[in-house]
Design goal:
Layout (H helix, E strand, L loop, with lengths): L17 E6 L8 E6 L12 H9 L8 E8 L3 E8 L5 E7 L5
């Protein structure tokens, strides 16, 4: 559940199941941050600090271009999401391994 009152609900699905993520990417020494929705997998983009991640998340279509989830495909070992940029029409694909009970 969204524990940060500064975060707007997910622009993709309306959920408040939000989280601020951080990760040190391969080959880097400093972490990047992003806000993501644990309900639909939407995210606001990676930035160098938490305040910027919150600003990116809280942007809405009237403020800027956004990526829209065209579809999500669930497979046995991974989940694939297909995104379309609302301004350029460019399509991108993302995927992640599904958690498997061990």
């Amino acid at each position: 559940m969204n524990q940060n009152p500064k975060l707007k609900p997910c622009p993709f699905c309306g959920s408040n199941k939000l989280e601020i993520f951080d990760e040190v990417l391969t080959g880097e020494t400093e972490p990047v941050y992003w806000v993501g929705c644990n309900a639909c997998g939407g995210d606001g983009g990676m930035t160098a600090d938490i305040a910027s991640a919150i600003r990116l998340w809280n942007r809405r279509a009237e403020d800027c271009q956004v990526n829209v989830f065209d579809r999500v495909e669930y497979h046995e070992n991974c989940t694939v999401q297909i995104l379309t940029n609302t301004v350029t029409g460019d399509v991108s694909v993302g995927w992640w391994e599904n958690e498997v009970d061990k």
